[in-house]
Amino acid sequence: MRKWIAWMIFALLLAGCASAAPNSNSGGAATSGGTEAVPAPDAGKTTVIGQIISTRNNQPITGTAVRLAQVYRQPGSEKEGAFVLDEARSPGGRTDEAGRFVIPNIAAEEYVLMISTDMGQHVIVTEGANDKAKVWQTEAGQILNLGAVRVDFP
To answer: Tell me, what DSSP letter sits at residue 8?
Structure first.
């Protein structure tokens, strides 16, 4: 938690000193909502940014935990796999007053996005008619902007 707070303070300091670049999936500064600069990830790492919006009322979901569960694939299979949320080690952060989040300097892997309630319930971001977990592939040296992610949050 302290590391995440330190990154947020660093991002805010950079926002005051540098001009913001447009939303981007490339290295360098990008913005998570058009107002805050996000520092480029360290070498070999990636940063994930986005905004969580409720499908129930179309409002940002504020002050909630956002976690990335790593995807593990069977050797030789691009379709077979599972995702794992390690409560102690999975990367994550919290949404701000606009529902935005930044998860800086993480391993470049495949991830599933999970939003957690204060009561320990997890909402998995899904896609398609069969509600399969949506998988995002990150790339080293890049900022992956998920944009507005809409979830049915309790």
So the answer is: H
Specify the residue for token string 């977990």.
133
In degrees and rounded to multiples of 5, residue 46 shows phi and psi of -140, 160
> Dihedral through CA 86, CA 98, CA 143, CA 21, nearest 10?
-170
Residue 20 exposed, middle or buried by CB count within 10 Å (0-12, 13-18, 19+):
middle
Query: What is the reported pLDDT for 36?
Result: 61
The residue count of the chain comes to 154
Give 39's pLDDT tier (boundaries 50, 70, 90).
confident
User: Structural domain of residue 124, as residue ranges?
Assistant: 42-151
CA distance 43 to 143: 12
Question: Among 78, 80, 79, 85, which Cα is nearest to 111's?
Answer: 85
Torsion of CA 142, 80, 70, 117, to 10 degrees: 120
Give per-residue pLDDT as tens, 69-121.
999 998 887 778 899 999 889 999 999 999 999 999 999 999 999 999 888 88
Domain assignment present for residue 116? The answer is yes
Is residue 15 situated within a structural domain? Answer: no
CATH of the domain at 139: 2.60.40.10
